[in-house]
Structures are given as structure tokens and as C-alpha cells.
Amino acid sequence: MTILAYDLGASSGRALLGRLKEGRIEVEELHRFPNDPVGVGDRLHWDILRLLHELKMALLKAKHRGIQLDSIAIDSWAVDFGLIGSNGELLGNPYHYRDHHTDGVMEQVVKELSAATIFEHTGIQFLPFNTIYQLAAMKQADSPLLREAQHFLMIPDLLRYFLTGEMLNEFTNATTTQLYNPVTEAWDEELIRAIGISPDIFGKVVQPGARVGQLQTSICEELDIESVPVYAVAEHDTGSAVAAVPALDRSFAYLSCGTWSLMGTEVGEPVINDLAQELNFTNEGGAYGTYRLLKNIMGLWILQECRRSWERAGMSYTFPELVKLASEAKPFSAFIDPDDPLFLYPGDMPARLAQYGLRTGQTLAQDAGSIVRCILESLALKYRYVLELTEQLSGQSFNGLHMVGGGIQNTLLCQWTANAIGKPVWAGPIEGSAIGNMVVQWIASGELADIWEARQVIRESFPVDVYEPEQTKEWQDAYASFKEKTGIQVSKKQNNIS
Predict the structure, then answer these.
(1) CB 3.0–4.6 Å: which of 3, 178, 323, 459 could bond 246 by disulfide?
(2) Would 463 be classed as within a structural domain?
């Protein structure tokens, strides 16, 4: 049985083949492609039709190799969406969540509706690019797209629609909009109407594992292929990554590490209380009746954007070269809060890091090694901070941290994370989101019994690297300095909500 998992990230996409043989998972990369946003005037968009083209190219590659696919599924980043008109056509390219059209909108909406009301209805953390604020921004701008919209589809929903002709909203991604109520288990019509949007555009919500159609005739005729069943999985890529955490203990902490870092734990019910709101945690839907109690951390985006800035200046580095330079730089010379709003948008990131240093009374050396070391050390220390908050909020104590995703290829970050938290880090698998996508397909088809059998199979199929903490005294001292220099504290003021 061969299945296809499309795993779309904020900078690249992958089409991976999965095979389940004698209780082991085999993964093969079929197609990989860039996912570059496109600036048009003052707006930043996703090139959604290019992504559709790449999905088709993967299907063609499978055909040319004589591979018969048994099923297909898609996962991607969250919050972004497309709108469909009355004729079934896409109304404009989806906005990128880093576009500036939401500037200041979260604060306006929170002022009008209150943070307490929004959190009570959704359990979702306050981030300026959440779907609720993107739609509110479009409404304030009197967007003609909203006037014509008949259907709201998030990115995987939209691409599934292009492939199958079926319009359905998947649960894990729907929860990230800050417009889905986990208590009523439905779209929150009160919040939707409060921002001036018609609830009628929001469709049926389906759970991971649901069969949601098959390749439609037009696709099959265009590519000269047979039709294939299409499943909904945990279509928010973090939801798929968490499904792939090879945990044996039902109580575990995870870090999905890539452009974004997402840290938390899996819970049976959403945690919606005053403390969760104050800590600005989120309750995103997971696979099989679970919720992901987690917090977003800016992640390796800051390093990626530094590398782009250096390339524009004529200095090209590979990521391994940058990691080596970081390992040779002076330790703990300066710290940043990776989640400072200064680092959210594209631009000259080294200059912003220098600006942050000046603002916080620190001198950050401007050589690449010092900058990368500052970023990685600060990320590791922020992971400790968020892990402690996760324990406080969940009432659990974790004996280590599972790291999954492409970021674990940065072994220095894995080791420094273990040093910072003072506990073991178990790193693997790398392609966590794609593997989580696959196991939900296999559970849906009856090849695997449930998520816990799937996690056991994942653990037996892929290596897990163990990083034991080192230099604990130095990292303990660094943590105290990190909190002092960055001014990190838990408060509504810090979270920019009221």
C-alpha cells in the first residue's frame, strides 16, 4: 500500500510517499518545491496556483514511475485562507499571514469584543495574524472579495477543493482561526457576526481521518491518471507533527521545530481559564479527540531571514556553515526574546537584532557567528521558559522533551535545548508533519488500529537521537540573565492584550 502525503511549509513543500511494510514505515521523497510568497504592490500573497501545479507535478512523477497510489492527503500551515465565489472560482490569491493589512486590527477587535470573551469562546491565543483579524481587516477595508464570497476555505481545504471539487473545512485548521468554539464544537456565529462576516460562508467541519472525496475527473483527464481517494488528516501541519511524536508515555511535552516553533502537550479537553488566557496559550484541535495546549514561538524564521539578508548583501552561507560559526562564537554575549514583534515581518533582520540590542541595553556583535549564536541560545532559553509554563498550566511534570520537524537537523539547537531545560531531548523524526499525515491515512484505511499503535510504529521505524543536558550551571545562570535582559514576564501587557 503506497500513500502520498503533501506537506506544505511556509518556505517549501514536499510530496512524500509512504509505505507500511512488516510494521515499519518507509518514507520516500517524490517531489520537493519552493513556496515563495509574492509581493504585489503593498500586499504579500501566497502563490496558490503554483502550489496546485506542484501537487499535480507530484502526481505525474508517481505516474511516470508506475506507482499506484492508494490515497492522498494534505497538511499545511494554519490561519490563511481563500474565498470562493458563487461560480465556484477562487476570489484572489490568499493573503500571507505576514502581510501588514492586519496591523493594529487585533487591538481594535479585542477592544470592541474583549479578550476574555474571545478566549472564552475559542481558547485560542492572541496573535495579530489570526484568521479572525485577517477577516476583520478585509471587512474594514471593504474588500470586494468579502462581498462576493460564498465559501471560506483554509489552505489545505482550498487545495483539496481544487483536487476533488468538494468544499469542506477540516477541524484542526478550523480551530486556529479563533472563530471555532471547542465547547459547542462548531463555528462561533456570535464572533463571526461581531466582525461583520456572514456565518454562511463557513462550511461543514470534518475530523482527521474522514474521507473527503477523490481526484475529480478534470484532474484525472489532465494528467491521464486513475482517481484516488483523498482523506482529511490533521491538516494543520503542527497537528500532524504532534500525531507523529513517538511518545510511549501518554503525558508528554513536544516541540515542533521549524520556521515556527510550537511547544506544548496533548490534552483531552481544551484548557480555557484565566491562567491560560494570561499566559496566552492556545487550544488547537488535534487528531482523535485531542487538543494541543501549546504556545507559538517565532522559531528559526529569525535565522532564515538573517540568511536572506546576508545573501542580498552578497554573503552566502549554508545553514551548516552558520551553525559552525555559532559554535565558535562567544557564549551568552547577548539575548533576544524571539517573540518580540520586531522580528515578525520580513526585512533586514540583522539590523533589527542590533536595534533590539540597543533597546535592551545590550551590544550584539554583528558578525554572523555571534548573531546566529544569540538566536539559537535565545531560542533554547525561550523553550525552557515555555516548557515551565506548560507544566504550570497543564499540572504535569515532564521528564524530557520530544523535538520533531526539520529544525532538529540543527544538532546544536537540540543540544542547547537539552542544556537549557536541564532534561533530555529526544529528537526525531525529521519529517514529523508528513509522517503524521501518513499515519492518519493508514488509521482511516484500517492499516493501523489507532494513534498509539501508530506512535509505536513510528518509534520503531525512525531513529530518535537523545541529547543529555550538559553545562547545567552555566545554562542556569544564562537563563537568569536571559529573563533579566529580555524583560520576559507573564502579563497581559506583555501579551499585547487587555
Answers:
(1) 459
(2) no
274 flagged as catalytic = no
Whether residue 376 is found in the same domain as residue 347? yes
Tens digit of each residue's pLDDT, the chain (498 residues): 899 999 999 989 999 999 999 999 999 999 999 999 999 999 999 999 999 999 999 999 999 999 999 999 999 999 999 999 999 999 999 999 999 999 999 999 999 999 999 999 999 999 999 999 999 999 999 999 999 999 999 999 999 999 999 999 999 999 999 999 999 999 999 999 999 999 999 999 999 999 999 999 999 999 999 999 999 999 999 999 999 999 989 999 999 999 999 999 999 999 999 999 999 999 999 999 999 999 999 999 999 999 999 999 999 999 999 999 999 999 999 999 999 999 999 999 999 999 999 999 999 999 999 999 999 999 999 999 999 999 999 999 999 999 999 999 999 999 999 999 999 999 999 999 999 999 999 999 999 999 999 999 999 999 999 999 999 999 999 999 999 999 997 433 334 432
- Give the whole-angstrom CA distance, residue 497 versus residue 97: 19
User: What's the structural domain count of the chain?
Assistant: 2
* Shared-domain flag, residues 155 and 89: yes
Residues 206, 268, single domain; the answer is: no
Catalytic choice (99, 157, 237, 337): 237
